[in-house]
């Protein structure tokens, strides 16, 4: 046993220090990023915000809505081959540049990805997603996916430390998903005691990835648009959102009405709800590591996106970054004890 004494920080522990700026308006800020990927040589350009691969977020409907705005969706892995066929037939071909096929690390997952990549070669992204990216089996699976799909852009995770970022990049991944336990409906930290404050994880993992010409996704922990700005300021190339994209028309999940108000069901993919739905229940050797909540119905996702991107542009004007790429270079974090005045917060 050992104890690391150096400080680890979450988004709530810091704010971004303003700096002099020559920008006259938020409209001068570009949120587009262009990336060249490590193993494929392929390029991608868009707004690097991603809807999480949860079945109450990462739906085909969300992919269409966000893709039209040049934002990405990691489509959850529980759609059937027929579902994919119907989606591909009716989707604008340009939308597919902003769609990732999610997969676990089992043999059935491997077969399904092979089918989709062969049947629909226009799909470019594969997201290999497990809760614990530290297992040897997972690293081996990422290498297998790289060998099987040499021309595809592979996301892989989740991890929170630099050495595993490096191992996964060297093993064939292009983009590493960073985050263990920060999600709004994740209970991993409560059930296991394992985790890593998300801002420090992003800073450490971004440094490791960029040294090898890879990228990272900050996955989880963003409650408000300011947290998204802090993730980018800390070095994240992409930011993945679950709860912030839940509860919309495009999010999937059951909508219910209570006392005249509409609510949407939102749950973690390791929750009892998800395992009952997709795996026949919680296996006797494990515990549920997610919760199920009802959140107020929020209408079309475009309104949330406008609020999110507007906040991000405003962050850039406060530090003088006319492109999102420059935000991390212009960011100085300051330690704080409080974020905002909560007197009228109900």
Task: Provide structural commentary.
By secondary structure, the protein is α/β, with parallel strands linked by helices. The protein is 31% helix and 19% strand. It has ten helices and 15 strands. An eight-stranded parallel beta barrel has the order 4-5-6-7-8-9-10-11, surrounded by six helices. The protein has a three-stranded antiparallel beta sheet with strand order 12-13-14. A hairpin with a 2-residue loop joins strand 12 and strand 13. The longest helix is centred in the last third of the chain and has 19 residues. It is globular. It starts with 13 loop residues before the first strand and ends in an 11-residue tail after the last strand. The mean pLDDT is 93.
What is the structure about, briefly put?
With 346 residues, the protein is α/β, with parallel strands linked by helices. Helices cover 31% and strands 19% of the residues.
